[in-house]
Amino acid sequence: MIRMLKGAWEWIEDRTGIAEVVREPMTHPVPRSAKWWYVFGSCTLMFFMIQVVTGICLALVYAPSAATAYDSLLYLNYDVPMGWMLRAIHGWSSNAMVFMMLVHMVQVFLHGAYKYPREMTWIFGVALLLTTLGLAFTGQVMRWDADAYWGVGIGASMMGRFPVIGGWLTHLVLGGPIIGGDTLSRFFTLHVFVLPGIAIALIGGHLMMVLKQGISEDPKPGTPGAFVDKATYKAEYKERIRRKGIPFFPVAAQRDMVFCGVMLITLIIVAAWYGPIGPGPRPDPTLIDVTPRPDFPFLWIFAVLALLTPAVEDYLIITAAPILLLALFMVPFLGGTGARSPSSRPIAVLVVILLISGVGVLSMLGVTSPWSPHMQAWTSDAVPPSFVRSRSPLELQGAIVLQHSQCRNCHALDGIGGARGPDLSDVALRLTPDQLVRQVQQGGGNMPAFGKNLSSSETRAVVAFLDTCHPPGARPANRPGARLEALRELDAKRAGN
Ligand code: HEC
Question: Which atom of ligand 1 is least distant from the CA of 310?
Fold first, then answer.
């Protein structure tokens, strides 16, 4: 039996030379000083491979259509033997992969391992980070629960802010004007075909660069390799590795294997203990009293959006994201040579401390900050008396509907209430009753549609009430041209105060 296997192996080796091909990269020499700091990259790779394997298994059962996705997850959770464990491992390993990748990046940054001649290794790495975040985001959508639904909604509304191409981009991603079955199909395609393909190609490039340029030495000040001089570094590094390097496999790889083993066991314990992530409540576009939360890599973005005033939100989304990305890609060009040790690079250390504490605090706020800045509005803030004085019964009824439909979570009256949407105190100046009906029923912008949540008489009442929300005397948005006139009047009055 063994003889037969050996014979078969020799046959394959003779035809393909595969052992020779594999031996070279596996046993390539690495610096002796590359010790426990150097295990995070291979651990990230391990989590990625776990994702591929568990992902393929999940895709056998998962039904990527809006009508069935949620139920197929429940089926996995409760009916398929060990299906829950498969989901748990996939979910936790996804978080672990993002986390490990960030640790790896911080280590590389602090040790100046991105400096000459390893700039391309860093650039491949940043591209991998983005692809992984893309996988995490699209993966969260696969759950197709309330969080996923609102996550897509928020993502789409962020994309919609981009000038000129915003609308087109949103349409492209959602597969239509609204979040629906086509949206899920697109995200599924991205999650299982496009992004994993890109990730595998990038990992190939990243590893090729690692082999080509070698991994950096421990940058202890005073040791060789701790200072990068473009003229001499490459040749000296080659020489040192040739003389003093140790083979990656089996010597240096032992540490990677120990660390990966510990992490794998931790992952299995965490997955078994905490179980699968979600799915949360069923997605329901008309249910707006949910508190959607994105997965942890996006919590800090969520917090920024929840805490910002809408006025600066647009500018921030359009400018901050590209600037941040550019900065990440530019790191090796901003300090591509010189000292590598963190003790000689106080600014680099400061940047890491600021980034970690900033993102950490924002992530914590992301857990606690309400989805609109003023969640108690509908229970605690009454409609100001001036808005109900001498109103008709229908209009008063509308004020009650406004109070009970969580409108005040997002909307203020006279400055009291949520700040997610516009203050409604003088909304009648801006919109006709028809437009009010449309806005309430169909939502739009960042506002959920209330069409299925409010009966037609409730809608009529709330619109009747909103139509009274204007400065005394003005009876504007109904007559052509009157709107401008009234706004001017209002401005004049405000200027007079
Ligand atoms: C989740 C937050 C949220 C909730 C809840 C909400 N809205 Fe809105 N609303 C918004 C946002 C954001 C806008 C701005 C939309 C845009 O930019 O197109 C808006 C716009 C409006 C407008 C148009 C205002 C204008 O000046 O153009 C009206 C009217 C309105 N909402 C009424 C309501 C009513 C009535 C309710 C309750 C039934 C409600 N909203 C609940 C977020 C919300």
Answer: 12
